[in-house]
Amino acid sequence: MKKSANQTKSKIVSAAWQLFYEQGFENTTVDEIIRLSGTSKGSFYHYFESKDSLIGSLAYLFDEKYVELERQLDYSKNTVDNMIHLTRELFMMIENTIDIELLARLYAQQLSKRGEKELLDQSRLYYRLLKKLAQLGQERGEITRSKSVAEIVRLYAIAERALLYDWCLHGGEYSLTEYAGATMPLFLNGLKA
Asked: Is 13 a residue whose pLDDT tops 80?
């Protein structure tokens, strides 16, 4: 039952973000989201109060990408290389399928929101996968043990959010994927053992 519920919510989120990218947030209706997702109005309103409440779901859309990326990881490779791969692939997806205005709106919403913030939800696959990689990197002696796994994950997430925030501030005037490809290795080199 839970899997079916998660699939329904996922369908709604995926359809919404596809429509937001194709026709803009303001031009997308709840009815269009329901139609594209193949769900019902009742299902939509079970998970979301309104179209605006979908903004926070972008974090979970990112996690859907991490499901795919986790399957692609080669754990025999250096952990830092796998972390760089994750960033590059996610940022490529963001750059090619997420409207920058909505990404900026997500950050604004998370800054002003009281209570739980989706970007900081430690139960997300994003954090679980980073924790797994950081632990593996420490076990292999590839990542410093001078910082805890939790601190390494936090620092990595801060670096990614900084890159995304800066990209939004600049209105996407440069390639997020290319810039992250040049800067994340510099940052991650500081975490190497």
From this structure: yes
- Burial category of 18 from C-beta neighbours within 10 Å (exposed 0-12, middle 13-18, buried 19 and up): middle
On the question of pLDDT at 155 being above 80, the answer is yes
| Least confident window among 16-30, 136-150, 173-187 | 16-30
Which residues have CB under 8 Å from 131's CB, separation 6+? 149, 150, 153
* pTM: predicted TM-score of the whole model, two decimal places: 0.84
**pLDDT, mean over the chain:** 91
Phi and psi at residue 28, in whole multiples of 5°? -100, 135
Q: How far apart are CA 153 and CA 161, in angstroms?
A: 12
- State the pLDDT at residue 131: 97
Token pair in block for residue 9: 């919510």
Strand partners, 192: 143
Residues listed for the chain: 193
Domains of the chain: 1-50 (1.10.10.60), 54-189 (1.10.357.10)
Report d(CA 99, CA 51) in Å as an integer. Answer: 15
